[in-house]
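USER: If only I could read backbone structure tokens as easily as an amino acid sequence. It would mean a lot if you studied the pair and described how this chain folds. Here is the record:
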Amino acid sequence: MRRRLYRHHHTLRTLSLFASAMTCIAVTGQVEPAFGKIDSVTNIFRPLSQPAQEIKETSFLVLAICAVIFVVVAGLLTYALVRFRHRAGDEATEPPQVYGSNQIETAWTVLPILIVFVLILVTSRTIADIQNRKPTIGSVNATVVGHQWWWEIRYPELGIVTANELHVPVSTEGNHRPTFLKLQSADVAHSFWVPQLAGKTDLIPNRENSMWIAPSEPGTYLGNCAEYCGMQHARMLLRVVVHTPEDFERWVKEQQQPAVEDTSAAEGRKIFFANSCVSCHAIRGTSAKGVFGPDLTHLMTRQTLASGAALNSHDRLRAWIRDPQQVKVGCLMPNMQMSDKEVDQIVAYLETLK
């Protein structure tokens, strides 16, 4: 009996310590230093967009209700373990059993129903408020297509196609300009998730889902695919770059321009168009019209390569062109078996795509 009580006490203490630690982390918002590097983990407890803020408020209400239930149940359990523990001199027989209490049975039937009812109402209101929002005059519209393993981003009204970086304007009280996204998949199920801006929304083949964001502060927000989609799922990363209104208009004008033909990289351009690169990639203003890979018109304006697998630097770009499988195993971009000189010439050409 004492051994069982000891095990109960040990289990209860462990659960209590774990719950306390998780509560401290949640309340203080210190998820980043607790679970990873500050520059690589997004703090979901610091929302900077209206949908994410509403989700946070609902989550905290659910957490508070569950915390109260946990404290009550754990308190009663602790009281029972301490108050009715076995003592020296107690009889070894089972104590008197009490059956049937209408008051207790009514309480533990009605209270859970009321709690569930409140949670359903609050959650339904939040879901409806987020999903029923409609585009307004001045809002930005974009289409995000999930591929294995990268993101294609189109701005149909602006005539822009890019990859792996979603650029949007900041949305403030004086200039509310949300961004509405149509989510599609070109192959398998993916999931669009930028924790500080909105909740997860799946990208399903042959189905179009939608969501919206309204970032309140300029900056770069990290996201990722949240639905397992193959061997490089963990490296299907995403960046949402939030601009001031002026910077966003400047970015739009730059992205709408065709690729500049730099004569200093003529040899690399020739090699690029002589290989099968043009079968997969598009470069606006040229004969490259591929649709299977990312649009490369303004490749060097992006912060990363291969959907966040590597920084967009000279060395990493060269390694990516030399052998994509060394950077992202299983990706559909093959090793073209080019010489070092050809690789250098193609890299020189790609670096002119700004």
Q: What stands out?
A: The longest helix spans residues 50-83. The mean pLDDT is 84.
